[in-house]
Specification:
Chain lengths: 268, 272, 348
C-alpha cells in the first residue's frame, strides 16, 4: 500500500520540477519554433539576474508578504483572543471566519476591485494601488489565521492562568508570560503557512490590479505567468519558476528547521 | 458577560461587520441597474433588479463554467478521497523506513508554488493533447490536492486508536477488510472534511485553470468571471452576480459543515 | 484448546528498541498464564506476538502443533481483550459481539444464537441494541470479554483488561475472570503490571524484565522463592527489604554464611518488632503508617538510625511511635539470599 503512495508523490512532485529545471537550461520560445530548443546552460539565469522587472517583482512579492502577513498575524491574534473569551454567537462568528476564507480568491479580488473602482485615483496610483491589494488579502485570510491561533489558545491549560493569578500576575503579564510562549508554536505555523502562501500570490493581483499600473504591483508569480503564457518564453519563464521554487523551498526548509521536529514526530 | 470582556465583544462585532460588508456591497451591486452602477453604486439599489442574474445565464451561458467547475472539482475530490485514503492509511499505520522523510516530502509538495510547475505541465498536456479538456485540469489539480488530502487524512487516521483495527484483525478481518469495516466508518467525518476542503480548493483554483484552458467550453467559474468583458467596460452588475453565484456553493458547504471544516483546518496545521 | 510455545523469540523495533531478547515460554493447554513486569518489560510485545499483531524478528511462535510465526492474526484463531477494550464505536453491542463470527463466515442463525448466549452469560441482554458510547465502564469491559467468548477461540489473550476499571469493579471482574477460566478451561494469557493481579489470577506467572523472562512458576513459588533480586522486589507488597548480607554477620546466633558478597532479602511481613536489644538488630522508628488491618513501619537500622531503611509490617495494635528504638527479629525460615553481583538466588 505504501508503494503507490511513494510513486504517486514522486511522479507528481519531482517529475515536473525536474522538467522545469531542464527547460530552464534551454532556449525555448514557442513563438519562434524555428529556433528549436538549443541548450544554453545558465544563460537564462544570467538574464534573470540582469532583469529589472524580475527584481521589481521579487521586491513587490516580499513587500506584499511582509505587509499582509504581519497585519494578519497581529489582527488574527487579537481576534483569536476575543473569540477565546466570548461564547455568544459562535455559529455566526464561525461563518464570518470561514466564508471569506472559502470563497474563490478571484471573487474576493473582484468585490474589492468593485469597491475601490468607485473611489477615484486608487487603482491608478503606483503606491496607493497596494491598499486594496493588501486590504483584500487581510480581509480574506485574517480570520483563518485567527482560527489557527484560536486552536492554539484552546490547547492552553486554564489552570495555568489560575496559577498565574494566584502568583499575582496582571492580565498583561499573563498574556506575556503564559499565553505568548505557549502560543508560539501556533504563531510560527500560521506565520510560515501564510508567508509561503503570500509568496505565491497570483489570483488576487491578477484580478485586482493586473499587476498595474504598469508593473507597479506585479508579483513574481504573475511575472512568471506572463512570461510563460503570454510571451511564450518557456526557457526563460522556467528559469523564473525555478527561482520562485528555490526561494519558497528555502522558506519551507526554515519552517521544517524551526518546527519540523514537532511536525514529523507527531506523525511518525 | 463580565465587564472586562467588553473589548472582546467589540472585536467580534467588528469582525462580523468587516467580514460581511464586502458581501453586502457585492449583493447590493448585483441587484443594481447598470445605469446606477455607472454613477457610483448606491448603498442600496432602488428598485433592486434581477436583470444581471437573468443576463448571466441567458446571454453569457454561465451554466457552462459552473458545469465545468463541478466536473473538475468533483472528479478531483473523488480521486483524492479514494486513492488518498489508502495512501494515508498506509502512512498512518504501517511502520517502514523513511516514513518521516516521506511525510516531510508530502508536506513540502502540498506547499509547492504552483507557478513552479506550470511550464512543464503545459508542455506535457500539450504534447498529449489534453489542453482544454477535463483530464487536462483534473490531473494538474491532483498535484496539489492529493498531498493535501493525504496529509489531512493521515491526521485523521492517526486519531483512531490502532487497537480498533487490531481487534478487527484478531477477530478475523484482513487488513483491507478491517480498513473497510472499521476504519472507514469511523473516519467518515474526517473523510467528509477532507472531501469538502479538496472540493473548495479545486473549485477556487485559478492559475492552472487559466493556463490550461483556451475558451468558454472548458473554463471554470473563477476563470470565466475573471475574464468577463463588456463592450466598453467591465459589466459590474453581471460580474457581481456571477461572484455571488460562484460563492454560493462553497458558502453553503461551509455553513453546513463548519464544525468539521474547522477541525480539518486546525488539525492539518496546528497539530502538524 | 491449545498450548502455546514461544521459542527464542526476539523482537527489535525499527527505532532500535529491543522488546524481546530470546523469550522462551511454554504455556500448557488450559493454563492461565500471567505475564507480569514493569512497563516496557516486553510483556505486551510477547502477547502481541502470540496474537500475530507483531512479527518476531527471530524465533518461533507455536500454537498447538502449528507454527504460526508468519501467520496474520485472522488465521490464528485467537481472541484478545484490549486494555482500551477497542469496541467498535459505530456498531451496537450486538454487532460488536457478532463481528468476529461474521468475519469468519458463520451462519447468521448460529451467530445470533452465540451472541444471545454470551450476552446472557455476561448480563448484557438489555444493552444489546446500544452503542459502546452509551455503556458504563463495567459494561464495556463485559462487552470486550463477550466479544472474545462468543468466538470460542483456541486461545484467549488479555492485555491489561482491568486497568481502566475503578478499584471495586476491578476486584469483581478479577473474580469473574477466574470463574470464566474455570468454566471454559481454555488457554489464557494475561498481561498486567499489577503483581497482585498476577498472583491472584495466574495458574502460573512469568515475571518479565527488559525483554526477558526472569522466572516462571506458580504464584506461590514465585512469591516464596523468587529467583532473582528483581523478582523478589517486584512481587509482593510492600516490596521486600534488601540489605547487605553482613548486617547479620557477627550477630548471634551464627550470622550470615554468605558474607559481604551477598544481598539479604526479607519481606516486611517476615520481621517481628521486639523490645530493643532483644532481636537480631536494633532500629530507629521513622514513620508509622496505619493500614487498617496492619501497620507499615519505616525504620532505619542502628540505634541512632544511621543505617539503611527497612520496612516492617506489624499487627495493628502495636504501640509504636516515631523515634522509638526497637529490636527487629527476622524469620530465619524466610530469609532470601542473592548473589550481590548477579542478583541470582543462592541456596534454597
Amino acid at each position: 500500500m505504501v508503494a503507490p503512495a511513494v510513486v504517486t508523490i514522486l511522479l507528481v512532485a519531482l517529475f515536473p520540477l525536474t522538467w522545469t529545471v531542464w527547460e530552464s537550461l534551454h532556449l525555448h520560445d514557442l513563438r519562434m519554433p524555428w529556433l528549436g530548443q538549443p541548450f544554453v546552460g545558465l544563460e537564462n539565469y544570467a538574464e534573470v539576474l540582469r532583469d529589472r522587472r524580475f527584481w521589481g517583482a521579487m521586491g513587490h512579492t516580499l513587500w506584499f508578504a511582509a505587509a499582509s502577513v504581519s497585519l494578519e498575524l497581529v489582527l488574527g491574534c487579537v481576534l483569536a483572543l476575543a473569540m477565546n473569551r466570548t461564547f455568544r454567537g459562535r455559529a455566526l462568528v464561525r461563518a464570518s471566519i470561514l466564508i471569506p476564507w472559502a470563497i474563490p480568491t478571484v471573487v474576493a479580488a473582484l468585490v474589492w476591485r468593485f469597491m475601490f473602482e468607485g473611489l477615484e485615483g486608487w487603482l491608478t496610483h503606483d503606491l496607493r494601488a497596494w491598499v486594496p491589494v493588501i486590504l483584500s488579502d487581510v480581509w480574506k485570510t485574517t480570520p483563518f489565521v485567527a482560527l489557527l491561533l484560536l486552536a492554539g489558545l484552546q490547547g492552553i491549560d486554564p489552570a495555568l492562568y489560575e496559577a498565574a493569578r494566584i502568583d499575582g500576575a496582571s492580565p498583561w503579564r499573563q498574556f506575556r508570560y503564559v499565553t505568548l510562549p505557549l502560543l508560539a508554536p501556533a504563531i510560527m505555523v500560521a506565520l510560515i503557512f501564510r508567508t509561503l502562501d503570500a509568496f505565491r500570490v497570483f489570483d488576487l493581483i491578477y484580478v485586482l490590479t493586473g499587476g498595474g499600473p504598469g508593473t507597479a504591483t506585479e508579483p513574481i508569480a504573475l511575472y512568471t505567468f506572463n512570461t510563460l503564457m503570454h510571451n511564450l518564453r518557456f526557457g526563460y519563464g522556467s528559469a523564473l519558476s525555478v527561482l520562485v521554487f528555490l526561494v519558497t523551498f528555502g522558506l519551507a526548509l526554515g519552517y521544517i528547521r524551526l518546527l519540523g521536529r514537532g511536525l514529523t514526530d507527531v506523525r511518525s | 458577560m463580565r465587564g472586562r470582556d467588553r473589548w472582546a465583544t467589540l472585536v467580534i462585532v467588528a469582525l462580523v461587520l468587516g467580514a460581511a460588508f464586502p458581501f453586502y456591497r457585492a449583493v447590493a451591486g448585483s441587484l443594481t441597474p447598470e445605469a446606477q452602477l455607472f454613477e457610483g453604486a448606491p448603498l442600496w439599489p432602488s428598485p433592486p433588479v434581477l436583470e444581471h442574474y437573468r443576463a448571466l445565464f441567458a446571454e453569457r451561458e454561465f451554466w457552462l463554467p459552473i458545469r465545468n467547475s463541478l466536473v473538475v472539482a468533483g472528479a478531483t475530490t473523488l480521486f483524492c478521497v479514494t486513492i488518498g485514503s489508502l495512501c494515508a492509511y498506509a502512512l498512518a499505520r504501517l511502520r517502514f523506513r523513511g516514513k518521516a522523510l516521506l511525510l516531510g516530502v508530502i508536506l513540502a509538495v502540498s506547499m509547492f508554488p504552483q507557478i513552479a510547475i506550470v511550464s512543464p505541465l503545459f508542455l506535457l498536456l500539450r504534447s498529449v493533447r489534453l489542453i482544454d479538456t477535463y483530464p487536462g485540469l483534473i490531473l494538474p489539480y491532483l498535484t496539489f490536492a492529493m498531498p493535501l488530502a493525504v496529509w489531512l487524512l493521515v491526521g485523521y487516521f492517526r486519531q483512531l486508536p490502532a487497537e480498533l483495527e487490531e481487534a478487527a484483525m484478531v477477530d478475523g478481518a484482513g487488513r483491507l477488510r478491517a480498513f473497510r469495516e472499521v476504519i472507514v466508518p469511523l473516519a467518515l467525518p474526517g473523510l467528509a472534511a477532507t472531501a469538502i476542503l479538496t472540493f473548495v480548493y479545486s473549485w477556487n483554483e485559478f492559475l492552472f485553470a487559466l493556463s490550461f484552458t483556451l475558451g468558454p467550453e472548458r473554463q471554470t467559474v473563477p476563470v470565466a468571471i475573471a475574464l468577463f468583458r463588456g463592450q466598453y467596460q467591465v459589466p459590474w452588475g453581471q460580474v457581481l452576480a456571477a461572484a455571488i453565484v460562484a460563492t454560493a456553493p462553497v458558502a453553503a458547504l461551509v455553513l453546513v459543515f463548519q464544525r468539521r471544516i474547522v477541525q480539518g483546518l486546525t488539525a492539518g496545521a496546528v497539530k502538524g | 484448546m491449545a498450548s502455546i510455545r514461544l521459542e527464542k523469540v526476539w523482537k527489535t523495533y525499527p527505532n532500535g528498541h529491543i522488546a524481546a531478547r530470546g523469550v522462551d515460554l511454554t504455556i500448557a493447554d488450559g493454563e492461565f498464564m500471567v505475564l507480569v513486569g514493569p512497563s516496557g518489560c516486553g510483556k505486551s510485545t510477547a502477547l502481541r506476538m502470540i496474537a500475530g499483531l507483531e512479527t518476531p524478528s527471530a524465533g518461533r511462535v507455536m500454537i498447538g502443533d502449528r507454527d504460526v510465526t508468519a501467520l496474520p492474526p485472522q488465521e490464528r484463531d485467537v481472541a484478545m481483550v484490549f486494555q482500551s477494550y477497542a469496541l467498535y464505536p459505530h456498531m451496537t453491542v450486538r454487532d460488536n459481539l457478532a463481528f468476529g463470527l461474521r468475519m469468519r463466515g458463520a451462519a447468521p442463525a448460529a451467530i445470533a444464537a452465540r451472541v444471545e448466549g454470551a450476552a446472557r452469560a455476561l448480563g448484557l441482554e438489555s444493552v444489546l441494541g446500544r452503542k459502546p458510547g452509551q455503556l458504563s465502564g463495567g459494561q464495556r469491559q463485559r462487552v470486550a470479554l463477550g466479544r472474545a467468548i462468543v468466538r470460542e477461540p483456541l486461545v484467549f489473550l488479555f492485555d491489561e483488561p482491568l486497568s481502566n476499571l475503578d478499584a471495586k469493579l476491578r476486584l469483581e471482574t478479577r473474580a469473574e475472570l477466574a470463574r470464566l477460566h474455570r468454566r471454559l478451561a481454555a488457554t489464557m494469557v494475561y498481561v498486567t503490571h499489577d503483581q497482585e493481579e498476577a498472583l491472584t489470577l495466574g495458574s502460573r506467572v512469568a515475571v518479565m524484565r527488559e525483554g526477558q523472562v526472569e522466572q516462571v512458576g506458580p504464584p506461590l513459588e514465585v512469591y516464596r522463592r523468587p529467583a532473582t533480586v528483581f523478582v523478589a522486589t517486584f512481587v509482593g507488597s510492600p516490596a521486600m527489604n534488601l540489605l547487605p548480607a553482613d548486617v547479620l554477620a557477627g550477630q548471634p546466633p551464627g550470622g550470615s554464611p554468605f558474607g559481604a558478597a551477598a544481598t539479604l532479602g526479607v519481606r516486611p511481613h517476615d520481621i517481628a518488632v521486639v523490645p530493643a536489644a532483644s532481636g537480631d538488630l536494633d532500629a530507629l522508628v521513622d514513620v508509622v503508617e496505619p493500614r487498617g488491618s496492619e501497620l507499615l513501619v519505616y525504620l532505619r537500622l542502628g540505634r541512632s538510625g544511621g543505617g539503611p531503611e527497612i520496612r516492617v509490617i506489624t499487627p495493628p495494635d502495636l504501640e509504636i511511635a516515631p523515634d522509638d528504638v526497637v529490636g527487629l527479629r527476622f524469620d530465619r525460615e524466610r530469609l532470601h539470599v542473592f548473589e550481590r553481583d548477579t542478583g541470582q538466588r543462592l541456596g534454597s
